[in-house]
Amino acid sequence: MTVSPPEMDRVLEARSISKSFGPVHALTDVSILVRPGAVHALVGENGAGKSTLAKVLAGIEQPSSGTMTIDGAAFAPRDRADAKRAGVNMVPQQLSLVGELSLVENYLLVGSRRLVSRRSARALLKATLERARVDVDLDLPTATLSQAHRQLGEIVVALAEGAHTLILDEPTASLGPLEVGGLFEHLRSLCDLGTAVVLITHRLDEVRQVADDLTVLSHGENVHHGSAARLESTEIARLMVGELPPPAARSERRPGATVLRAAGVVAASTRDASLDGVDLAVRAGEIVGIAGVAGSGQNLLLDVLGGFVKPDSGTVAFAGTEAGSRAGASAAAFQRAGLAWIPEERTEAVVPAMSLRENLTVYSAAVGAARKRGGATRDARTGGTQTVEDTLSAYDVRPVRPELAASGLSGGNQQKLLAARELGASPAPRVVLAYGPTQGLDLRASQAIRERLVDLAVGGSAVVVASHDLEEILGVADRVVVMFAGRIVADLPIAEADTERIGRAIAGLVDGSAPDSPARGDVE
Ligand SMILES: Nc1ncnc2c1ncn2[C@@H]1O[C@H](COP(=O)(O)OP(=O)(O)OP(=O)(O)O)[C@@H](O)[C@H]1O
C-alpha cells in the first residue's frame, strides 16, 4: 500500500463480515456503509459486536470472512498502521497513549507524518484543540492527566493525524456535557469537510444530537440500518436492548449513623484538582452523588476516601479505622472493613489477563488469611456460598465462562464483572465508592446497576457515586455534593438539587460559602 495523505469523500463499505473468537461468533454477516460527510452511529447492547466491527474496519482485527472496499477498491488492511495509511483511523475504548510521553510526543510516535518537527506537531495539536474548544495540556506526560483529558488527548491526536474515516469507540464515556458539546461541534465541522465519522455510543441523546446514519447490532448481527432521524429514541432503545422494565420507584431511605467521614482533607495531585480542605460525612443508608466537571477533585476525593491516597493533612475515618497524614490505615484495611470500590478506570480494578473466576475471587485469599488472624470483619467477596457462575449470571456478565480471560469480554461486560465483584459481596459492603459505575453499560445493564446501588443503600450501605453524567446522579442520589477546583461548593438534598442550581455550582458560580458539613464526630 502506498503512503499518501488521505483524500476526503471516500466511501468505506464492509460486506458480510463475520468474525469469531474461538467458539464465540462476535459478528455474523454484518454489513455497513460509511458515507463521507456523515456521522454514523453504531449502537447495540453490551457484547453486540460494535468494537469488533470497528476493529475490523480499522485493521486491528482481521475478519474471518467478508470483504471491504474504499470507493469500490479492495481494502484489506494487514494491521492498524496499514488502515491508517489508507485513511481509516480509530480511537479505541482502551486508550493507547504512552503514559510516559506527552501528547506531542505521542503524536510524533504514532503519526503517519513521521518527519514532522516537534514544534509543528505542537502547533498542529494546539490548533486541533482550539477547533474542538477543549483544553488539554500538550506537554505533561499523559499518565499524569485525568482520564477525561487522556480520552480527549487521544481523540485530538487522531484528529490531527487526519483521516477520511474516523472511528470513535465510546469517546464520550468519561466526558462531561461541555466537553461532549465541543467534541461534537468539531466532528460536525470535520464532516462538513468530507470526513466520515463512525461513533459508538450507548447514549441515545448523542445519537439524536449528532448522528445522520444509524446501524444497530444485536448478538453480532445487523438488526437495523438507515437514517438516524427516522427513529424515535424509544424505538432505538427497543432495537438495542428489547423492552426495558419500568425503572423501580424511588424508595424511602432513612439514613442512619455516619460510617465514613473526611475532615479537613488537603491532598495534592497532578491528575486531578488538589483537595483544599474537604469535609464530607456519609451515613449508612444514603447515596451521596458527587458532581463536577472532570478534574474538579472528585477522583482524588474517592481515592482519599478509599484509603488509596493519604491526605497531606486531615483525616478519613471509616468503621473505627482512621487514615490520615501521619497515622493511617491502608486501602486494604478499609477493604477488609467492607469497602467496595469501582474506579473511573476499570483497568485499575479488573485484570485483563486473569480469568473471570480469578477476577471475582481475587480478594478471597487475602480476606481468608486475615480472618485466620482474626482481623477480618467480612466474608469473602464472591457472594458467600454463591458459585462464580451464579455471580456472573446475577450481573448478566456474558459469556458465563469462569475460565475465560477478562480481556475476552466486551468493555461493558468487564464493567459488569467489576460490579459483580464489588457490589455482589456477601455480606453487603458497608461503604460503596463508585466513579461512573454505569460507564460503558447499555441501558438495561445501567438500570440494573442503579437499582443494585439503591438496594444496597436500602439495606444500610453508605454509597458515594461520582459521575460526569448528572442524570445518573439525580437518578439515585439522596444528596448532591458539587465539587469545584478541589473544594465542595454545594451540598444539596435531592429535593433542592435542580439542574440549574447544580449547573451554577459546577461552573463555580456559588452564592455564599461552602456548606457546613459536620467535620468531627463519631464514625460507626
Ligand atoms: N479478544 C477476544 N477474545 C474472545 N472473545 C472476544 C474478544 N473480543 C471480543 N470478544 C467477544 O466478542 C463479542 C463482541 O464483543 P465486542 O467487544 O465487539 O462487543 P461490544 O458491542 O463492543 O460491547 P460493549 O458495548 O460492551 O463494548 C463478545 O461476546 C465478546 O466477549
TrEMBL record:
GO terms for MF: ATP binding; ATP hydrolysis activity
Pfam families attached to this UniProt entry: ABC_tran (PF00005)
Keyword annotations for this protein, in alphabetical order, are:
ATP-binding, Nucleotide-binding, Repeat, Sugar transport, Transport
InterPro entries named in the record: AAA+_ATPase (IPR003593), ABC_carbohydrate_import_ATPase (IPR050107), ABC_transporter-like_ATP-bd (IPR003439), P-loop_NTPase (IPR027417)
Every ABC transporter domain range? 12-244, 260-510
Name by which UniProt lists this protein: Simple sugar transport system ATP-binding protein
The organism encoding this protein is: Herbiconiux ginsengi
